[in-house]
Amino acid sequence: MSLPIPQAHLDLLTRPVHGVLTTMMPDGQPQSSLVWCDCDGECARVNTTAERQKGRNMIANPRVTLLIVDPDDTARYIEIRGTAQLITDGAVAHLDEITRAYTHHPQYYGYIYPREQRERETRLICRIQATKITLDAIHK
Fold it and tell me: Name one GO cellular component term (predicted).
């Protein structure tokens, strides 16, 4: 069961604001990536591939943190710690959905990344099952 995203900060997941996803490398070192993110009504989500470092890290160790800072007020943020649930079903459709939210392109493959790359990657939706949510002290 995931903790609910607080209504006061839900907009950081429903408008195109970049987040920083932190995963754990095999040697225990944290690895952070700038990501597009959204919310499915229950969990924060990001999209990646099983072949990228963050995907490989989550397959080996599903503990993650997503930090999103409001670009309009950098003192306002949400940090979501939890466990990544990795889903392949619908991952390309989800990627196209967030591509349209973050860019002017209709889809990811063929516009952002070469179309032929799609066959070489296993797309993953990372649903973050929140176990701890931290908000900035000012805007709680």
Answer: cytosol
